[in-house]
Amino acid sequence: MKAALLREWGGPLEAVEATVDDLRPDEVLVRTAATGICHSDIGCRNHAMPLELPLVLGHEAAGWVEAVGSGVTYVKVGDKVVTSPSSFCGRCVWCRRGEPALCVAPQWGRPDGSPRVRVAGNPINPFIGIGGFAELMVVHENTVAKVPAEMPFAPAAILGCGVSTGLGAALRTAAVGFGDVVAIVGCGGVGLSAVQGARIAGARRILAIDPAAEKRELARSFGATEVIDPGAGDPVPAVLELTGGVDHAIEAVGRAETIDQAFGMLGTAGVATIAGFAAPEDMIRLPAQALIYGQKTIKGSLMGSTNFREDIPTYADLYLAGRLKLDELVARTIPLDEVGAMLDAMEAGAEEGPRVVVTF
Predict the structure, then answer these.
(1) What is the mean pLDDT of residues 124-148?
(2) DSSP strands (E only) in the chain
């Protein structure tokens, strides 16, 4: 199979021929059809995570099941599936509580450390046990969710990470309620999905905040009732003037500054939900008395608190029913041999929309 291989941190992606190992009883062989390019792939390429080289990036993938291990019962050959970084063990306390996104033993690799993929006989590491920038993926069965046969692959792929993170931040972590007033800080793929989550939940007002005019207009089409350009300065006064303080602020940027702003937008008993992936060194400072006298809350949202085996098929149904916009999130599709150049362009800030998807 063809794969895009990272051999050095910050380096280019090299097109290589790779082979997949025989399936273990709990593994699934997926023929990749589409893989979204996520900002986490950029961070990983730059060694923002404690991983080992060589590495196949890509984790937001969709395809069809080509083979299953002898013990697999969830999927069968021919099923359409979406991969999720929230691979779960099914046994730990968080899995038993129905919160697999917090699993303490995600099934990213084999217990004995043996490789699932090799290049020229040498082991390589698929990113988060997926490695979606390749024509085939060998994954643990707890890494995939089934979607309907009529679900197109490109919109299915982006359900696996960015869309689930944004929708889940609104629907699961924040639990936006009917009639709530919500501010979304940042309107990339995650933020626009959070806008849709707030709309689906029945929010009365949805304020979308982003410096890019095209993203603000997309937010309007996705359900935002008002948009704010923070380019002129701190957006907090504008939000407070419009609303008096929001019930929920969802931060989808991942910067200390915007996290502080999200908290500052809250009204009494408001909740700030942080879905953006901040750098390890970022620190935030909050007014301590506001936590008490305003009874305000700040909470993190890992992968939108997703229970992906339940959530991804539901999101697919919403898309097929016309209630969830996904096609509009895909700026364009590219072949596998262009993924390295696209990562370079994204890192340089030359983005083409919420998501670019590699198709096979």
Answers:
(1) 96
(2) 2-6, 13-17, 19-20, 27-36, 55-56, 60-68, 80-83, 117-119, 122-126, 136-140, 144-146, 181-185, 205-209, 226-228, 246-251, 266-274, 297-300, 330-334, 355-359
Q: How many domains does the chain have?
A: 2
Does a structural domain hold residue 166?
Answer: no
CATH code for the domain in which residue 184 is found = 3.40.50.720
Dihedral in degrees, nearest 10, Cα atoms 16, 329, 306, 40: 40
Q: Which residue has the tokens 């920038």?
A: 133
Percent of the chain at pLDDT exceeding 70: 99
> CA–CA separation, 353 vs 162, rounded Å?
13
Residues 217 and 243 in one domain: yes
CA distances from 81 to 10, 141, 146, 160, 306 (A): 30, 10, 4, 10, 16
- Residue 352 pLDDT level (bands cut at 50, 70, 90): low
Closest CA to 158 of 332, 30, 285, 296: 332
